[in-house]
Amino acid sequence: MAKKRTKKPKISYLTIDLREYVSRYVALSQADMYWKGDCPFEGCESDDTFMLSDHLHIWHCTSCKRNGDIVGFVAHKDVCSREEAYKKLLEELPISCK
């Protein structure tokens, strides 16, 4: 007997400009196809170790080894869980969930 295929729910993704959001906290300068700046997180004192990729929507600090997406950035910045960071983004940005 063949398995019944269930319909997957439609998920709509909202793209938040990572560079625009991170530039509120970090002075970024363009370096080829990436953006770089000083790491905004506590305990990381190195200059120009924070890298951001617009096309991949990720960031990485080569000094403190932290990395992630926009939710991860908020979680590290505010020292909270990913769930709390997601809620903070929903409150802060004009995003509507349906």
Strand proportion? 15-25%
The profile of the biggest β sheet is: 5 strands, antiparallel
- Mean pLDDT, nearest integer? 83
How many strand units? Answer: 5
What would CATH call the homologous superfamily?
A: Zinc finger, CHC2-typedomain
Kindly give the count of domains. 1
Low-pLDDT sequence parts: 8-13
Task: Report on this structure.
The chain has 98 residues and is α+β, with helices and mostly antiparallel strands. It has one domain: Alpha-Beta Complex (DNA Primase, Chain A), CATH 3.90.580.10. The protein is 26% helix and 17% strand. The chain contains three helices and five strands, in the order H-E-E-E-E-E-H-H. It has a five-stranded antiparallel sheet with strand order 1-2-3-4-5, covered by helices on one side. Strand 3 (50-53) and strand 4 form a beta hairpin. It is globular and about 55 Å long. Mean pLDDT is 83; it is low at 8-13.
